[in-house]
Structure formats: structure tokens, C-alpha cells
Amino acid sequence: MIQTMLIMMAVGLFAGIAGAILGLGGGIIITPVLTLMMGLDIKYAIGASIIAVIATSSGSTIAYLRDEVLNLRVAMFLEIATTIGGISGALLTGVLNPKYLYLLFGALLVFSGWNMWRKLRRGQEVMTNVKPDRIATKLKLNGSYFDKSEFKRVDYQVEDVPQGFLVMLGAGLASGMLGIGSGAFKVTAMDTFMKMPLKPSSATSNLMMGVTAAASATVYFFNGSILPNIAVPLALGILVGAVIGSRVMQVLPARVIRMIFIPVILFIGLQMLYKGIIGG
Amino acid sequence: MDDQSHQNSATENEMEHIEIIIGRILQIGVIIAAIVMLFGLILLLINGGNGGYPVGHQPTTISSILSGTVALKPYAVMMVGMFCLIMTPVLRVVVSIYAFYKEHDTLYVWITSIVLVILCISFVIGHTV
After folding, report:
1. Membrane-spanning residues where (chain B) (predicted)?
2. Do A87 and B16 make contact, defined as CB atoms within 8 angstroms?
3. Smallest Cβ distance to A68: which of B16, B27, B107?
4. Residue A19 above 60 pLDDT?
């Protein structure tokens, strides 16, 4: 019993650090560990993953708010899209064939991975000389953050708001229906489509994914899918990990974060394409 | 240009206030959730891994969680801790509405309120579907 508890705490610590840095929910780490290594039923693994997403989100957001890395307005505005998408996803389960969703969103993530790789090769993190976007200005979405690896304040503009909103709608739909991609799509929408720098994208994704997960979490909580002996040590490990991760992320060069992010996002994308091809 | 940069810095100041308020409240919420979860975990250890319920069972109704907590059953206390954790993002949205209101940012009071309403709808749908 104590052994299981310690394993869960260690897994949580690792998932929390990784999740906070990359802006991902950590489901890709936790679900395989719980199902393959611990032999846990997928139902309980999903329940634990949902708790993991919230713990990563809340644990990292404390530092991201205090150090002003995240963009609260972007988060709140896009949260409208993800929550509507989430409801639609829950209602469309059984109506829409998940096969096509897997194919569509798998392709989106692979595209985004390729796009990030191009950004990495160009070596330019912040787009300069972008003309001010009308909608972004109106919604006061443009922001700035202090980059602790470059020791300077970075001002950035937000572009293509409608496109980002649309991707977020899809992201909410996909994570509502498929139970995956809580963070990957969010980072993608901000970084690839709205041209935000990676650090605020990741931090903002961290804030948003907790809000999106909270709604489904209560359902799992009351139907008994969240096992306390598994989820509690996991959540405690993650909280500590996320607090560490949210500090590490700020001193890491954005290039390094991108280099870790690309293979992860490609892996998730290819996994989804595979699921779509073999029939979901 | 001067006018715009002036407006930008005003927006930034406002944002700073809002983010600090939300950050503080969130921190308190997370700490409470962590303490309750840790307390439950310690109770579980003291009880030698016995959660206070038959193997493979845990309290899932509000009344059973509350009565279990009063009786200091480890699983019940752990469920309370997790429930606090699940509520932290919701708390964040509620406090955001208040913070935007305090800073007279009407547009974002609306946007954040819409998020809260959709969130409430999804709670209801989640429990009926």
C-alpha cells in the first residue's frame, strides 16, 4: 500500500513538472502508467487523469499569475469556446463518429508540430512587426511578460483571434468527446494560430485546462471513477511538481521548451491518427 | 502613439491587480485542498491502509462523504480534499468576475460571467446525461 502511494507521488511529481512546463494535462504520462504498469481499469485511469489536470493547472497557475506569465484575458475569452465545445462534445457522444475526430485532430497536431519545428529553425520566438489585429486590440488581448531566461520584458501581439477561437471550440469538443488533448490543442491554438510566444501560451493553457476539466471532474467524482487511494497521492505529487515546474519553465529558454514540446505533440498527434485509422 | 502607450500601461496596471487578487485566493484554495488531502492520507496510513469502507468502495454522495468525514474515515476525508481541489478552477472564475468588476472592466465582467454560466450548464448536463 505504501509502495503504491510512493509510486503515485513520484509519477505525480514528474507529471506535474512536465505538465506545468509544457502546458499539457499530463494524461499522456499518467494514463499509460496507471493502465499498463499498475493494471488499473481505464475508467479509474481517466478519473485520476482528470484530477491530475486540475492539480497541474491550479498548482502552476499560482506562480504564473504572480509572475504575470499568463494572459488572463486570452484565457477567459477562449474559455467561452472550450466550455461550449466541451458541452457539445458531451452531447454529441454517440452521434458523431469519434474516428473522424481522431483523424482531424491528429492531423491538426501533426501540422502544428511541423509548424513549431519551422518556428524553431527560424529561431525567432516573438513575431515582430505584426500589424495590430483589430479584434485583439478591441478585446485588449495583447500582452507582455518578463522572460527570466533572457532578462527582458517581451511585448507581444495576438493575431487571428477568430481562427484561434474556432480551434479552441474544436479543442473543447475533442477533449469532451475523446477525453484527451486537454492541453495540447490549447497550446497549439495560441502558439500556432494566434502567434503568441510559447511561454505565455503554455502558462495560459495551464490556467484554462483546469476550468475545462472541472465540469467533467464532478461527474467522475460522484460516479465513483476517482479512487482516493490512487488520485490523492497522485494529486499531492503533482501539486509539488507543478509548483517546481512553473518556476523551472520561466528560466528555461523558449527554444528548449519548444524542443521538448515538438516530439510530445507529434507523438500525441500520430497516436490519434493511428486510432482514427484503425477505427477509434 | 503616446495616447496608446498610456492606455497600454493603464491596462497593465489593472491586470497586475487582478492577477494578484486571483493568485492569492487560488493559493489559499490549493493549500486548503492539499492539507485536507494530506490529512486523509495520513489517516489512511495510521489505519494501515483501511479506508473505512469495504474494499473497492468509497463514499460518493454528499451525505455519505460528510458523515464519513465527521467519523474521520480516511476515504471520506480524502474525497473532501479532492472536492476542494476540483473547486479551485471554479473559484478562479468567480474571483475573476469580482476582480474585473473592481477594476471597472465591464467587457471582461461579461466575458467571465458567460464562462461561469456555461460552466454551470455543463455541471447540470454532466449530471443528467
Report:
1. 21-46, 75-95, 107-126
2. no
3. B16
4. yes
User: For B79-95, what is each residue's pLDDT tens digit?
Assistant: 999 999 999 999 999 99
Contacts of B23 (CB under 8 A, 6+ apart): A61, A62, A65, A66
Asked if B114 lies within 8 A of A80 by C-beta distance, the reply is yes
Does residue B3 surpass a pLDDT of 50? Answer: no
Q: For residue B75, which residues of chain A lie inside 8 Å, CB to CB?
A: 228-229
List chain A residues with CB under 8 Å of B34. 236, 239
Residue A182 carries which DSSP code? T
Residues 6+ apart with CB under 8 A from A232: B37, B40, B41, B78, B81, B82
The verdict on a CB contact (< 8 Å) between B22 and A214 is: no
Domain region containing B101: 2-128
How many domains are there within chain B?
1
Give which of B9, B35, B92, B125 to mutate to test A binding, by max A Cβ within 10 Å: B92
Sign of CA dihedral B105, A70, A147, A118: negative
Q: What is the reported pLDDT for A217?
A: 86
Nearest CA in chain B to A141: B11
Residue A69's CB: how many other CB atoms inside 10 A?
A: 27
For A152-164, write each residue's pLDDT tens digit. Answer: 888 888 988 999 9
From the number of C-beta atoms within 10 Å of its C-beta (0-12, 13-18, 19+), residue A272 rates as buried
Q: Are A273 and A106 in contact (CB under 8 A)?
A: yes
Secondary structure in 3-state letters for A236-266:
HHHHHHHHHHHHHHHHCCHHHHHHHHHHHHH
Gap between the Cα atoms of B27 and B30, Å rounded: 5
What is the grid cell recorded at A35? 493502465
pLDDT of amino acid A55: 96
Q: How many CB pairs under 8 A join A and B?
A: 155
- Chain A nearest-CA distance from B70, in A, is 17
Q: What angle do CA A15, A16, A22 make, to 5 degrees?
A: 85
pLDDT tens across A74-117, in order?
999 999 999 898 888 878 877 778 788 888 888 988 988 998 88
Cα Rg of chain B, angstroms: 20
Distance from CA of A207 to the nearest CA of B (A): 8
User: Which residue in chain A is spatially nearest to B48 when comparing CA positions?
Assistant: A1
